[in-house]
Amino acid sequence: MSTEEDAKWLQWVTHQFETIAGKDGEINLQEFKAALNVKESFFAERFFTLFDSDGSGTITLQELRDALTLLIHGDPMDKLKFLFQVYDVDGKGSEGREGWGERGVGSGASPHSASSPRGTGSGSIDVDELRTVLQSCMRESAISLPEEKLDQLTLALFESADKDCNGAITFDELRDELQRFPGVMENLTISAAHWLTPPASRPPRRRPRPLTSAYWHNHRSHLLCLAVYAGLHVLLFALAAHAHRALGPSVMVAKGCGQCLNFDCSFIAVLMLRRGLTWLRATWLAQVLPLDQNIQFHQLMGYVVVALSLVHTVAHVVNFVLQAQSEASPFRFWELLLTTRPGIGWVHGSASPTGVALLLLLLLMLACSSSCIRRSSHFEVFYWTHLSYLPMWILLILHGPNFWKWLLVPGILFFLEKIIGLAMSRMAALCIVEVNLLPSKVTHLLIERPPLFHYRPGDYLYLNVPSIARYEWHPFTISSAPEQKDTIWLHVRSEGQWTNRLYESFKTSRPADCGSKQLSRSLRKRRSQRRPQVSEMSSENHLFCNIKCYIDGPYGTPTRRIFASEHAVLIGAGIGITPFASILQSIVHRHQKRKHICPSCQHSWMDSIQDEDMKLHKVDFIWINRDQRSFEWFVSLLTKLEMDQAEMAQEGPFLELHMYMTSALGKNDMKAIGLQMALDLLAKKEKKDSITGLQTRTQPGRPDWNKVFQKVAAEKKGKVQVFFCGSPALAKVLKGHCEQFGFKFFQENF
């Protein structure tokens, strides 16, 4: 920081301190813990003891400023001395800040005498102290490991750091161990609370994304369709207004909006023809039309319909007011607006009352389509009010003399799809044969697969379980591979009312049909496990069932493009892994088809010829989870993938896994550095990660997307396409980075 920035920061810290300290002007241990917002009080107590230089039991503003100045502005050696004091548990911080704050000690000498006896503040860390620290690090990062694994981590770090094997880690040994991890010493920080770190400087103002060339390149089909849509509205409005120019401006506006509404109210249904869109994805039109944005276009068209309807209504109201004021008109304003007496319209003068009814229905549908209703526990309100499109179409036919002509082709297509879907979904009831309750309230369903149910990796279906809700259908991504013939897998996260009822129906009480035919279900399970697939079953919370259900689908998604990509980057956040689970299992199956084993010597090799529809040269799979248990959902699948990768005889890995745990603190944090170093050492020794059991090391925190995409671009494995399934907030971040690097971005609606 410059002198001016440093003064501003100290002023800011003073203000933050005063809001926490209150009237007494000092912070006690409890206030310090609350301000740090730490999960484990061990670190708060250690930091507090070291900050409290006079041992008074409270921290003054001056003590805090002196400590923070050294930690933030000090050199790496100052921070390392503070870290050593924190880890020296039995030292109890007896030397206060003098042990790590004096610049004269920065020459490399220990802040304590290495020859002093241990356990009395001698400046050495024994194995029991290190175990205590690592246990606190685990709690701070929300990591749960068995006691045996904690012992292994402790010994791995202790034996690596204790170079002279004297049973204690000195300051010099800790410094040498940290230097093995590049960049850690330079970036070491407490990073425990916002009020302990200086405010970030404001980033330079960037151009709005729509004005960048990368944005135009990645959204050209989307923007072209919007331009065509806008141009068509201008044309329709102009033609209708010109045809009625003799009737005055208000009628011209009303007729122009009405002609646009004829198109919108009929074509809006085409955007939700899921079977038709799935068929289009297999054609060359998928490269031209933005089929992945069909829901966004549907929503946009809905807003346009509302806006045009309001303008259309206002224009007619103005015209009615002018007519009512005219001496030649025998009708009053309310008669023109609400009755059939004036004879306005082609069916018994019903244009005015049907128009009022249409506007009320439209506003009701708009209100019930808001995200707060759709994504809350009131989904059925959105569902049932959206079915009012049927009475709306009837009213529109009565309202406008030409609407039936616009609706003819879209309406036939719409009702054909509905009839086909209803016939196929209700043709025969299926059964949920197995249920597995997973961490984070995720329900894993195994549904018997119909004989003619053909789908591609990443597709989704609609599920109806009459015992949960007779008339509700909900979309879920198919998480099993198409090569899995007997069952279909669904992973359902409990978010709304329906999904919570589904989970609780298995959690709180066993359904009536659960537990029946256990022998036949077990036989089916054993037989299915002989096939080349991955099972996620566990004995706990695992039920055999025979519950009736119906499915409608399958329907295509953007992930169908993955196998046509050259370098695919798959990013799943939490349960957003489900479409990629199907894809990864399909990759496993295809590789197993290419694998051959010599019956004599058991030598195995892989065919170099891939499937015709698979152009992939490289796949990077990135899975981001908040907590440790969420990795249990698909850990056996990922383990199988790693095993297959080890057997592949080709240059470099075809599939590269990247795992991130956002609740875990990184190596630059004093509350986690020891644990992360130990995890690295043990992973290198055992060839597997202690958190997931995979060979891939689980990284703490969130990915640095700039570094991730820089690495992907540097590999030059072909044209990069990024596929994401997760929260909309993260989608915006990823989309911005993809535009920066020129990657094509596809998002699964989540």
UniProtKB/TrEMBL annotation:
Keyword Magnesium: no
Molecular functions (GO terms): calcium ion binding; proton channel activity; superoxide-generating NADPH oxidase activity
Principal cellular location given in the protein's record: membrane
Membrane topology: Multi-pass membrane protein
Record field: transmembrane: 223-241, 253-273, 300-324, 344-369, 381-400, 406-424, 568-588
Domain (FAD-binding FR-type) ranges: 425-561
Region spans: Disordered: 94-125, 509-537
CDD domains referenced in this protein's UniProt entry, alphabetically: EFh (cd00051), NOX_Duox_like_FAD_NADP (cd06186)
Domain EF-hand, residue spans: 39-74, 149-184
Example GO BP: endothelial cell proliferation
InterPro entries the UniProt entry points to: EF-hand-dom_pair, EF_Hand_1_Ca_BS, EF_hand_dom, FAD-bd_8, FAD-bd_FR_type, Fe3_Rdtase_TM_dom, Fe_red_NAD-bd_6, FNR_nucleotide-bd
UniProt name for this protein: NADPH oxidase 5
Organism: Ursus americanus (American black bear)
